[in-house]
Amino acid sequence: MISKNQLKLIQGLNQKKSRNKHNLFIAEGVKVVSELLNSNLNLHSVYVLTEFYTKLNNINSDKINIITELELKKISNLKAPNQVLALFNIPKTDDKISNDGLILALDDIRDPGNLGTIIRLADWFGVKSVLCSSNTVDVFNPKVIMATMGSISRVSVEYCDLYQRLKDINKPIYGAFLEGDNIYKTQTTTNSVIVIGNESNGISEEISELITNKITIPQFGEAQETESLNAAIATSILLSEFRRGE
Amino acid sequence: MISKNQLKLIQGLNQKKSRNKHNLFIAEGVKVVSELLNSNLNLHSVYVLTEFYTKLNNINSDKINIITELELKKISNLKAPNQVLALFNIPKTDDKISNDGLILALDDIRDPGNLGTIIRLADWFGVKSVLCSSNTVDVFNPKVIMATMGSISRVSVEYCDLYQRLKDINKPIYGAFLEGDNIYKTQTTTNSVIVIGNESNGISEEISELITNKITIPQFGEAQETESLNAAIATSILLSEFRRGE
User: Fold this and answer.
1) CA-based nearest residue in chain B for residue A121
2) Which residue among A146, B46, B190, B233 is least packed, with the fewest CB closer than 10 Å?
3) pTM here?
4) Is A227 on the interface with B (CB under 8 A)?
5) Would you call B232 an interface residue with chain A, using a CB distance cutoff of 8 Å?
């Protein structure tokens, strides 16, 4: 069962302020929690239906709370809660993550689903470092964690003054613009940065100044000129294109 | 204002049965409704806040209902309703859509957001025909329409017995499998069909029999072997790869 204090703690963790105060974040559902239990992340506590309990091997029983479906519903952010919710410690990261290899830079990504999908793509395409502008949605937001499908444990994320941070990186910086070079005909290098712009406004003026290589994903249909691709979809196409030659 | 009958009609249209009975579907929000008003779709009625009213040119005033924010909230499916909701007639389509060019075939896509994003991608990449298995979510579901961002008016969609339908198409049929050929090293042709599998189960056994070209999107990171890409993300990478040589 869940105590009142636990309930208060968990519900509070939907807010960034509380996540930072307690240094904890929420992960939900069989797939995500299973992956994070197998990662190097530090488990704080886990709340499980009896169905999932048998899958919890080598976990200190003090950390396990068996709960009812009704209790899970109370703490879950999902329409259809899925057996388990766990709290993990937010990992300590270096102030500055590595500049090696292919890097993603996110210029004010606001949608948690987009950020989670982008982290998952970074994992798939072997991008170790994701730089986020300070206005990008918090990566430990429960909806972001859900969309990462567990890949958060394999990708380093740094929130920073993106302009200053990119200014100090000595690599080609790519960004997608309507008037850029056709990405399919551009020679790319994986030792570079790809900037992904905000869902509504694209790449900000300030960051645009730092882009060394303006590229574009061409349209093939009769789609309107004003039409654009979703931020996560654009990320997938660009990462695929940067990696395909390897 | 909205009459009781109108309210009942609109709320009913969240159900497929009612959509088919009335031959109507719901579109919401400034972007989607604006695009559909500029398409060849037939407007049934539109419910607008005064802010959006001025943007309604050349529309028969009998079809326009000016409503309050409170009324919009009542009929909207969005957390943050966006100025306008409209009902359009479900367009008559041919029983069989065209077999020309690059075709997408969806084998039980269940998530409305995924289907909408896939339709939007089809539009971007010039895919005119999308074949859906009969268990694929209804394309006129309001959440699907929202995610298409208006592109539904430029893509033809046919629900069918996908096995029979594909059996009768004389083209290469591609599908993604773990053990397929590396898509980046495969010669593709745009005169073909790409099958996209269900979110949880991938391509069904029955449809697998018809796949002539098994392909795979390789991983570059340390992602788990069991990890997979989201259906819409996989679609974007495959369509980009099929079109890039043009």
Assistant:
1) B229
2) B190
3) 0.93
4) yes
5) yes
